[in-house]
Amino acid sequence: xxxxxxxxxxxxxxxxxxxxxxxxxxxxxxxxxxxxxxxxxxxxxxxxxxxxxxxxxxxxxxxxxxxxxxxxxxxxxxxxxxxxxxxxxxxxxxxxxxxxxxxxxxxxxxxxxxxxxxxxxxxxxxxxxxxxxxxxxxxxxxxxxxxxxxxxxxxxxxxxxxxxxxxxxxxxxxxxxxxxxxxxxxxxxxxxxxxxxxxxxxxxxxxxxxxxxxxxxxxxxxxxxxxxxxxxxxxxxxxxxxxxxxxxxxxxxxxxxxxxxxxxxxxxxxxxxxxxxxxxxxxxxxxxxxxxxxxxxxxxxxxxxxxxxxxxxxxxxxxxxxxxxxxxxxxxxxxxxxxxxxxxxxxxxxxxxxxxxxxxxxx
Length: 363
Prior knowledge:
91% of the residues lie in helices and 0% in strands. It is mostly helical.
């Protein structure tokens, strides 16, 4: 009976203690660790375990929890520093890639402007080259025409001078036969008629390119020759000879002037042709240089298109990596905060139990 009373007393005391302990841990009632600690203490007290040993065990658990907290703080600090370094590297990579992209776009814009300018220049050079070709052709045509015209006129002058000299020879022969000659032989008469007709033809030929002062000599010569076809008057003969001599001189002067003008014209046209050829060479070099530069620019623009696409992709990937790294850091920070709160709660629970044990030991 006495044993039963003692057992009942122990049971009552234990129940009372459990009730007090539950009240102390009421705010942690739903915490798994709190329940485990209450069970540990409950088992110890039910089995009559030593409170000092229980206190030492709780202190050991607390020390381990504190050590674990410190370890987690250290690991979190290491992770935070490493994350910051990684984010800084990613940010530096992003800035570099964005800088490369900006430079590529600026170069693309500059080259596009240069391309447009060169395309305009090529059109202008090509148009100038076409004009040059037409000008060269025109200068050559003018030179050919000048040479042909000179040859014709020079030949006309030669023919006229030869005809005058032939007439001069005929008239000199007549004068040598005697000034009182009344009757003409049929051959002489025919020669005079032919000479008159020749002078008429020469006059018509030379009208286009001979001084009018020279042409005025033809008519009295022709009239004199016509008169002499019937009879030779010494005065008329000498007058005609004088006029023919003056005509020969005038024709030679006209021929010399023709040759001088032709030389000047040929020099001018030749110089013009040389200038056009030099201009053509300059335009061809300019055009070739512009076309080569156009090819270089177009090639570089094609290359830049590829580089810009790559840079855009790198920017997008780097931005995504930064977003992912930031999100991971936020998740790690949240988990660390939760763990720290949980660990502190566990330490508070152990502290409450140690306080309770100390209270019991002091009773």
